[in-house]
Amino acid sequence: MIDVFANFNIDSKERFKRMKDSFFSFNDCKIINKWVINIRGKYKRSAKNFLLKNIKKKKYIFNIDYKEGWFQETKYMLKYIESPIVFFWIEDHILISKKNYFNKIGLDFYNYDLDIMLYSFFHSGQYIRNFSSFFDQETKNFFTLNINKNTFAKIKKNFLKCEIDYLVSCCSFFSKNFFRELIINKDKILRRYPKKTPFNFEKNLSDSHWLPIKKAYPKFELFASIDDNQLKNGYSLISRGLYPDRTSKKKISKINNHDFNIYAFYIYKLLEKIINKVYVFLFFKRS
Known about the structure:
alpha/beta; Spore Coat Polysaccharide Biosynthesis Protein SpsA, Chain A; two-stranded antiparallel sheet; 9 helices; globular
């Protein structure tokens, strides 16, 4: 029913440790059919050996590192994804609900023909509160939200109330067809983020050309981030005292701003916005 997908960079002992902790939190969920994983970084071989040893179901584990970047690697991996649902595994998010909830929510996702469902950053149900008047359907496990161009203006205001501007986030369940669309259909000439990262895969509120999208939001917290509070103090597992604080998020992310030029950044962002909008208007079409 579900294929687990990941294309991540395991470049430190701490990230490797977090990957293992995340894996063991959900690896034996019954609804998982297959694992399709690519690993880059200093610990790519150690991580690959770990997964080969511990995954008991069908698996394809790669160590490919194309110069073209994350999208080209993921395009290669698409042919191995067969199940109707794709779980985009982020190695620093941990399942904190019961595993049976993971199984039930996966079945509901399939039965309600959804495009995407966010599985982390629950923030005490902020989406449920902010979108309650827009939900279309309710199951035992989640609410559904149809976002189309007619309703987007109103719904957009509620995204901003959540202080989050993503239409599409990596830490989600996807239908196989929608996941494939996001990988195959180019909608950017200028990248927002470095090509080796997955962040260009995500879509923010300016990317309304991806509408309509049928989303779902879980009623209960499923996964949680190890160290990312996402502007909500006390959210992450480390902030809650539920995960050891062995190193800082800054060190893990290898953030280095000593050569950062704020003027060049804003000029690039302006060009990126204008050029990409023109490209979308002239050439973009969902398959």
